[in-house]
Design brief:
CATH topology of the largest domain: Rossmann fold
Order of helices and strands: EHHEHEHEHEHHEHEHEHEHEHEHEHEHHH
Helix content: 40-55%
Pfam family, one: Glyco_transf_4
Keywords: Glycosyltransferase, Transferase
Distance between the termini: 22 Å
Protein name: Glycosyltransferase
Strand order of the largest sheet: 3-2-1-4-5-6-7
Shape: globular
CATH superfamily of the largest domain: Glycogen Phosphorylase B
Number of domains: 2
EC number: 2.4.-.-
GO molecular function: glycosyltransferase activity
Radius of gyration: 21 Å
Largest sheet: 7 strands, parallel
CATH architecture of the largest domain: 3-Layer(aba) Sandwich
Amino acid sequence: MGNTMLYVITSLSVGGAQKALLNLASSDFSRDYPPVVIALVEVDGVQKQFAEAGIPVHVLGINRLTQLPWVLPRLFGLVRKIKPQVIHGWMHHGNLFATLTWWLAGCRPVLLWGMHHTPEKATLERKQHALVLKVGRWLSRFPQQIVYVSRRSMQRHAELGYAMQHAQVIANGIPLGNNREQAAHYASVRQELGIPANARLIGSLTRYVPEKDIPNLLNAIRLYQEGGEDAHFLLAGEGMNAHNPALQPLLSALPDAIKVHLLGVRTDAQRLIAALDIATLSSQREAFPLFLAEAMAAGVPCVATDVGDIAEFVADTGTIVPVADAAALANALSGLLNQAPKVRESLGEQARQRVAARYSLNAVIQAYQQMLGKVATYSVSNA
């Protein structure tokens, strides 16, 4: 299959890392490196989008470690049949299995790792994650290149003892929005949710996991409303629905007047983002949150917590607030929404231009092509 790029990812659940892979694998980059994907864990997610993009996907279904012995022969058969030129791990578990796949390949293709997470202290306190990180530290000497999506992620892995001689930062690539489509989405989403056309809409496409700090976000929403402000709030993503038992008491504590739209898992993220006046995240830990970058690409100004590389890529196109400070988050939302519409539009346009200049999908493709060119040259010179 020529220059086939075999991506090995933990799962195809709905998340930023998965979407970043879909963006890259379905881009012009696939002309030089036709993609094939192996997903370790079987979950409901974005398999349909990969299929629609014509990307072959093989799901191993390693939902329990006891299944591993039965899966290894299939993995061996797949890699020998695909004969990839490059094997690219994606996320921590995907990196470990990419290395195993590289060993099984026989022909020793180029091995890349992709780091989409920043392992802060809380991550290390989880036994399974701590073990995966320790194994990864030992194996990190094998890949020809380790790609980090943020400088903070690279710094933390260096502190944990990961090999750094072939490390570099390549942010997730963001397709730029289409103004005409965005205007249509702005109206259609509001119509779908019963939101008046002139109402202000704040949104967060996130997940109900500890690192996203949803309690802080909901507390900020409460403080925002108590300050006499009025807006609708769109919350979408895994666990962001009324059936989540952990979310129910937090929602019950909100005044009835607060208009929160819980959408759960959605696959039309770009359409939802286009309807927003402000995008927000209240995370305690991040590497490169794709949601904020997509919002900026759509011309939506952002309010977010100061974690990972968020402050660097948002810069002066939005507002950055301290972690776990609901009052600061509420005040920032209020301050930005109370700006004149022309000011917000100007900030949104600056955000769009910043993404186009620094984080566009084309820029990421060029970075990958340069990296693979150097790796190929190095491999030949050391053959």
